Every structure is written in C-alpha cells, then in structure tokens.
Amino acid sequence: MFMRRGARLYCKEISLTNPADPSPPSPQPIDPQLLEVAQQVFDLARAGDAAMLAAVIEKGVPPNLRNDKGDSLLMLASYHGHVDAVRTLLERGADPDLRNNNGQTPLAGAAFKGFDAVVETLLSHGADVEGASPDGRTALMVAAMFNRTAIMDMLIAHGANPNARDASGTSALDAAGRMGAADAQARLKAQDS
C-alpha cells in the first residue's frame, strides 16, 4: 500500500485522477492522516454506509475518488450490492460510467454479482447500457454468462443490444452457451424470434 522514497510516503491505494486523462498518475506525496481518511471512505463504500458517504462528500471528498485499481466509490458500492450507497453517490455527482483500470464499469460489476436493484439504479441514473469493457464485453454479456435473467431483461428493456459482439466475436448468447446458462440462452433465443 505504501512506497517509501526518501523521507516521503507515497500511496498506491489512492489515485486522484482525471477520468478524461487515461495516463497513469505520477506518485504524489500524501499526508498519512489523509491517507487514513481516504481508506476509511473506501471502506464506507464497500460497507454501503450511504449516510456517511453523503456527509463526507458534502465536506469535500470527490464523489469520483478512486483507489489504486481505479475502482471508484461507486464501483465499490455497486460491486458490493449497496443500492442506497449507489443512489447517494449518483445523486452527488458520481459518474455512472467511470471505468476501473481493467475497463470495467459499475454496471458490469453489478451485473456480474447479480444485484438487480443496483443495476436498475445505475440505469435510472444514466449508466451506458452498452458501455463495454476494452475487450467489447457488455453488461448484458456478463449477465448472460452467469444466468442472471432478471438483469438481462432490465438491460434489454433499457436498450442493450442482444446481438452485440465482443472483440472476439462472442455474443451474449454465445457467452451463455459457453457457461451452460440455459435460462439465459432461452431468453436470448426468444429475443431473436
């Protein structure tokens, strides 16, 4: 988590980056007390403490604060299934499409974990239903792989293209087939009818 250079500590856990600038940030010296506070804020997102997240953002914590993996507060809350925290962050300016260092969106994270209410909240706050990872995999493909039919229905109702293909040419139907997700396959085949 920490790197020591001379007498200064540098943090590998926090990255205050500009989402529009994909270049990696250079290490910035961070006060150890500030580092501890930032870690506590990430823990609030993981735990889903919506009230405390609202309070710290109102005190000046950026709603798009990211850790060393590029996971934003919204990504952490989404991945851990905390719909109230997700809503709180979105209402305070968190970017619903801010990708982590692997190019994954909060929507894909919630689809992967099977959190229907989080997916619906992200979509209702403008998350890009077709926002694909660098390999072209969409949230619909992720949901199909793991047989998450309710999430698939939500994504399709919000305009997800069931015929989209990732960089290797795999569709949601192909992904469901590879994973043995029979219900997802049936749902996607019915879309084609």
Please name the defining characteristics of this protein.
10 helices, elongated, mainly alpha, 6% strand, 193 residues
What does this entry look like structurally?
- With 193 residues, the chain is mainly α.
- Helices cover 48% and strands 6% of the residues.
- It is built from ten helices and four strands.
- The strands form two sheets. It has a two-stranded antiparallel sheet with strand order 1-2.
- Strand 1 and strand 2 form a beta hairpin.
- The longest helix has 16 residues.
Strand order of the largest sheet: 1-2
Strand content is 5-15%
CA-to-CA gap between the ends?
52 Å
The helix/strand order is: EEEHHEHHHHHHHH
What is the strand tally? Answer: 4
Structural class: mainly alpha
Stretches where pLDDT is under 50 for at least 5 consecutive residues are 1-18
The level of helicity is 40-55%
Radius of gyration: 18 Å
Count of helix runs: 10
For the report, how would you describe the main beta sheet?
A: 2 strands, antiparallel
- Principal-axis shape: elongated
Residue-averaged pLDDT, rounded? 87
Topology (SSEs and partners):
Elements: E1 2-5, E2 8-11, E3 14-15, H1 32-47, H2 50-58, E4 66-67, H3 73-79, H4 83-91, H5 106-113, H6 116-124, H7 139-145, H8 149-157, H9 172-179, H10 182-192
Antiparallel strand pairs: 1-2, 3-4
Helix pairs in contact: 1-3, 2-4, 3-4, 3-5, 4-6, 5-6, 5-7, 6-8, 7-8, 7-9, 9-10
Task: Kindly summarize this structure in a few lines.
This protein is 48% helix and 6% strand. The chain is built from 10 helices and 4 strands.
